Amino acid sequence: MHFLSHLAVLNLAMLAFAHPGEEEHHHDRKAELNVREFKVAAKRGLSACSEKLQRRDFHNRAAERRAAKVDSYRRHNGLRARDTNTTADTSHLSSANYTSGTPESTIFASNGTCILNPEGETGPYWVKGELIRSDLREEQPGVPITIEGQFVDVETCEPIVGLYWDIWNCNSTGVYSGLVAMGNGNSDDESNMNSTFLRGIQQTDDEGVVTFDTVFPGHYSGRATHIHMIAHLNATLLSNNTLSGGTVPHVGQVFWDQDLINDVEATYPYNTNTIAITENVDDRVFSTETEDTTSDPVLEYVYLGSNLSDGLFAWVTIAVNTSATYDPNYSFVWTSDGSIAESGGELTVN
Ligand SMILES: *[C@@H]1O[C@H](CO)[C@@H](O)[C@H](O)[C@H]1NC(C)=O
Ligand SMILES: *[C@@H]1O[C@H](CO)[C@@H](O)[C@H](O)[C@H]1NC(C)=O
Ligand SMILES: *[C@@H]1O[C@H](CO)[C@@H](O)[C@H](O)[C@H]1NC(C)=O
Ligand SMILES: *[C@@H]1O[C@H](CO)[C@@H](O)[C@H](O)[C@H]1NC(C)=O
Ligand SMILES: *[C@@H]1O[C@H](CO)[C@@H](O)[C@H](O)[C@H]1NC(C)=O
Ligand SMILES: *[C@@H]1O[C@H](CO)[C@@H](O)[C@H](O)[C@H]1NC(C)=O
Ligand SMILES: *[C@@H]1O[C@H](CO)[C@@H](O)[C@H](O)[C@H]1NC(C)=O
Ligand SMILES: *[C@@H]1O[C@H](CO)[C@@H](O)[C@H](O)[C@H]1NC(C)=O
Ligand SMILES: *[C@@H]1O[C@H](CO)[C@@H](O)[C@H](O)[C@H]1NC(C)=O
Ligand SMILES: CC(=O)N[C@H]1CO[C@H](CO)[C@@H](O)[C@@H]1O
User: Does ligand 5 have an atom closer than 6 angstroms to the CB of 225?
Assistant: First the structure.
């Protein structure tokens, strides 16, 4: 039965995604207007926040927390930091010019308050109902990454406590877990319906912070390397460690420096992917999210050790309008019977 409904969706999917690789090219005038309105309002909200955050010592505390986390990861894994020059040269320079010799405390203290715009664009591969967990790697090979997200309320400038951060990205060879579809690896491999790798949800702490262990994404056709995200508010935690209800006040995507992507793509198994790379500058979502200077959707990062195989620590601050509500599209739901195709989201003809 599931297989039948799955096939029905796949047919719709084929119609909707007539051009593999352009899965996410859904131009929606209303959505674009909303993004624009959001940006204007968010800009106002954030310049108001900036002063308040400084006063509250928000950045200093964030810097200390990140430095401590990196230190603890390095200790745990017996790693030594890359020399500062290399780190400085390759770190994402969003709002400050790091020079050689810039101390770590300064790197972490950069305002780098990357403001993400709710794109109103979920992409086709959100799987609803994923598990609450912090380590998403399972057995996936690739460059290990630890991502810290900090959520701030754009109206009050306060950290958002109790928000659930839901993230997902493709694996090192460009395949998403939990679904079977054209353009997502081998579409004859039904077993991928039951995989959950590189997807998960976590709740923010008192500082509005969440940390995930995952794997640097690979790439697929027509899109630059990215990580998808959704924020859930007022959701109920069920006894089987999944969420129900609540609202979605934020939908977005984060990116990586192109130089870093190129370095990662040169390593195994990323380099076995034969699909052409789409660079950030050619990515439609990247362009929309970087339209104005208050928005920086590129993750800041440092090397945890001396090279990529030791992993990266990356971070982003996300301003959310908690009263906004989005209706993210999805076609698959994670259940106790594995992933099930649903005629939901953008695959529904309505
Ligand atoms: C937040 O969203 C509400 C409802 O859509 C809107 O009235 C308000 O202006 C927004 N605030 C900011 C700072 O974007
Ligand atoms: C870092 O870069 C500076 C300026 O280019 C140079 O003087 C210094 O020797 C470099 N340090 C290391 C450890 O390579
Ligand atoms: C960083 O340095 C470059 C080159 O010196 C300069 O053009 C740019 O304005 C600087 N950016 C910031 C944010 O200071
Ligand atoms: C961060 O932004 C505030 C307000 O715009 C500014 O005063 C401060 O110097 C900035 N700090 C850094 C480290 O860039
Ligand atoms: C959902 O899909 C529809 C149809 O493609 C699109 O117009 C809309 O913007 C999408 N919404 C989100 C939140 O992704
Ligand atoms: C990525 O996921 C697909 C689907 O499960 C799998 O076939 C492929 O081997 C994975 N890539 C790597 C490098 O493990
Ligand atoms: C990366 O660093 C580790 C030690 O931290 C080392 O064992 C490994 O050989 C290095 N890999 C490369 C490609 O340099
Ligand atoms: C968790 O429980 C809910 C409510 O009973 C159910 O709908 C959902 O399928 C379950 N999810 C999993 C992964 O077991
Ligand atoms: C997924 O797992 C469920 C529960 O273990 C099983 O019934 C189902 O046959 C599996 N589906 C696939 C496509 O492997
Ligand atoms: C109805 C409800 O519980 N609303 C809450 C949703 O979450 C926001 C942010 O945490 C709260 O401010 C609301 O009170």
Answer: no
